[in-house]
Write a structure and sequence with these properties.
Blueprint lengths: L4 E5 L8 H5 L31 H8 L8 H5 L5 H6 E3 L10 H5 L13 H15 L3 H8 L2 E5 L4 H9 L4 H5 L2 H18 L3 E5 L8 H6 L15 H24 L4 E5 L1 H10 L13 E2 L18 E2 L16 H13 L3 E2 L12 H5 L1
Parallel strand pairs: 1-2, 1-3, 3-4, 4-5
Antiparallel strand pairs: 5-8, 6-7
């Protein structure tokens, strides 16, 4: 059965414009200012990249229009037809856990929004009656929909790491994050979701943000690609725990297709062999200088911040997010490679889609 719509939940790695509606006026957030969007759209869209994201490439592979943001729906800018084609609930800065979790632990000022995963799920439930009017009609729509649950959870760790909370403390957050994601998946399945793709975390030790924050004089802290070993091990630990939970959920819901998307290993080759892909390495394309061209107090989109001439030569766009070129390669790995488990995208009837075949 070909998928006709996408429903997405997540953070800035998946947000296709909710940030634009939240940030009023939009230019208050740096992702809503030039040069964001310059490569594909020609202007900022609220996407934290120079162009399209993984969700955009997945939509194109399904011959589905790029998925519109939920807050555009509530502003009356999206037609009923677009609703049927899917809606994106992801918000830049979102966490899997509610803001109260961090406030209870004395973590303030580093969580970008309170539009957490539970809030996004609430939006979906509010929108559902306008998509379908009965259990049978909802079942018919949702079983033909692809649900992207993430990437979400990265900001639950990014904020505390930015405050230099201890590794041991942040590791204790992992079960809570995974429980929040697991609970959302169960709720979506109960509502009628049939196929859910759940991404893990990227190799964060290769991020210009983390490389700048935790720059070390000890060579042993880095791998051959120049990435911070201990941060990548943390991402691997989180991903292993997430996969184990998804396996348990699959046993509980044998009628659903719960797919782990291995963002970590899909992205890793770009860092390990950048020249093979036409990339220059670990520096950000757009940033405020420094070894990795990242400066938290002088971010991309800020006044006087320089942007590279050719984003296609860079993996990292702004220190935190990827360039469109990197996202496209990662999406291709996911769609055409062996970086999803236990099912491949091609096994889910996408191979019958001409756009998928040509991607």
């Amino acid at each position: 059965m070909p998928y006709t719509s996408i429903f997405s939940f997540g953070d800035s790695l998946a947000d296709t414009g909710n940030l634009f509606f939240i940030s009023q006026p939009p230019h208050l957030h740096h992702c809503c200012r030039p040069p964001y969007g310059e490569t594909y759209f020609g202007h900022p869209t609220g996407r934290c990249s120079d162009g399209r994201l993984i969700i955009d490439f997945i939509a194109e592979s399904l011959s589905i229009p790029l998925v519109k943001p939920y807050l555009g729906v509530t502003n009356g800018q999206i037609s009923n037809r677009t609703k049927e084609e899917g809606v994106n609930f992801a918000v830049a800065g979102a966490t899997a856990l509610d803001l109260s979790f961090f406030e209870e632990r004395g973590i303030y000022g580093v969580i970008g929004t309170n539009d957490s995963l539970s809030v996004q799920l609430g939006w979906f439930k509010e929108l559902l009656p306008s998509i379908c009017s009965s259990y049978s009609s909802c079942k018919e729509v949702l079983e033909k929909s692809l649900f992207l649950v993430g990437e979400i959870g990265g900001n639950d760790f990014n904020g505390p790491f930015a405050l230099r909370r201890s590794f041991a403390e942040i590791k204790t957050y992992v079960p809570h994050v995974i429980d929040a994601i697991s609970s959302t998946i169960s709720d979506l399945i109960d509502l009628g979701a049939q196929t859910l793709v759940v991404p893990g975390n990227f190799p964060i030790g290769c991020s210009a943000f983390y490389l700048t924050l935790y720059e070390s004089k000890h060579k042993n802290d880095y791998d051959e690609a120049g990435c911070l070993v201990w941060l990548n091990r943390f991402a691997e630990y989180y991903n292993q725990r997430l996969q184990a939970e998804l396996n348990q959920l699959q046993e509980l819901h044998p009628h659903a297709n719960i797919i782990y998307a291995d963002y970590y290993n899909a992205a890793l080759p770009l860092y390990q062999s950048p020249k093979k892909f036409g990339f220059m390495g670990l520096k950000a394309c757009c940033g405020g200088g420094g070894v990795y061209n990242y400066n938290a107090s002088n971010a991309c989109g800020g006044e006087g911040v320089n942007c590279c001439d050719d984003p296609a030569k860079y993996i990292n766009w702004d220190g935190v997010h990827f360039t469109e070129s990197a996202y496209k390669l990662i999406a291709r790995y996911l769609l055409k490679g062996s970086y999803t488990a236990p099912y491949k995208f091609g096994d889910l009837c996408l191979k019958n889609n001409k756009a998928y075949e040509s991607f």
